[in-house]
Amino acid sequence: MKLVAPSILAANFNHLGDEIEMINNSEADFVHCDIMDGVFVSNISYGLPIVQHVHQISRKPLDVHLMIVNPDRYINEFYRAGAAIITVHYEACTHLHRTVQQIKDLGIQASVCLNPHSPVALLSDIIEDLDMVLLMSVNPGFGGQKFIENTYRKIAQLKDLIIQRNSKAMIEIDGGVNFEVGEKLYNAGADVLVAGSFVFGSENPIETIAALKRL
Ligand code: DX5
Ligand code: ZN
């Protein structure tokens, strides 16, 4: 699969409606929403009201990435706000199995994210329950950071685990994606590429999204 999820963290929030309309008119597969609480990561982004507004006008499913502590407390609310996929961080969940079941019970897709330092093997007893795994290819918290090369190795390990356990999980990569990195990521086995500054900082975001899907 070659799917693209533009991250609106890099969008112009003075014209958020236009940015969502651009995504609607593009070949993007999801809208990636980055929720940061200033505790799990050192940045604060945006929260439920923005996700609700995006959901009202988006024709693409919302891929909600929760960079927050105790995400269990907010899963129902992000579901009601319109999330189609909810990603929680392995590092933020003490009872990850319960959290994943909570997401699945809502009838939406459950995804778990690993920080760059967290080994893929941590997911070996949960992989069968997951619809997606998000591998951070930068340290979470900010857009526009440099891609971490070790991600390619983690994709190979994750692919092996997925095949071994007969899991249907997609592999999503988040952080520092551009054409050069993106091509290697798809070749390594990635299914979904998140791209923030590369899409919204480009001259023609619609063309950039289309080109990312054709790498
Ligand atoms: C980083 C976020 C990313 C971010 C990616 O913590 O999870 O989704 O928006 O931004 P770029 O593509 O600019 O690295
Ligand atoms: Zn993200």
Largest sheet: 8 strands, parallel
* Highest CATH level, the class: Alpha Beta
Give the overall pLDDT as a whole number: 98
Q: What count of structural domains?
A: 1
Helix share bin? 25-40%
Structural class: alpha/beta
CATH architecture: Alpha-Beta Barrel
What's the count of strands? 8
Task: Specify Rg, calculated over alpha carbons.
Answer: 16 Å
Give the SSE layout:
Blueprint: E1 3-6, H1 16-24, E2 31-36, H2 48-57, E3 62-67, H3 75-81, E4 83-89, H4 96-105, E5 109-114, E6 132-136, H5 151-164, E7 170-174, H6 179-188, E8 192-195, H7 197-200, H8 205-213
Parallel strand pairs: 1-8, 2-3, 3-4, 4-5, 5-6, 6-7, 7-8
Helix pairs in contact: 2-3
Bound molecules: D-xylitol-5-phosphate (DX5) and zinc ion (ZN).
Zinc ion is lined by residues 7, 32, 34, 65, 174, 194.
Please give a structural write-up.
- The protein has helices at residues 16-24, 48-57, 75-81, 96-105, 151-164, 179-188, 197-200, 205-213, and strands spanning 3-6, 31-36, 62-67, 83-89, 109-114, 132-136, 170-174, 192-195.
- By secondary structure, it is α/β, with parallel strands linked by helices.
- The chain has a single domain (3-213), classed as TIM Barrel, CATH 3.20.20.
- It has an eight-stranded parallel β-sheet with strand order 1-8-7-6-5-4-3-2.
- α2 (48-57) packs parallel to α3 (75-81).
- The longest helix has 14 residues, at 151-164.
- The structure holds D-xylitol-5-phosphate (DX5) and zinc ion (ZN).
- Residues 7, 32, 34, 65, 174, 194 line the site of zinc ion.
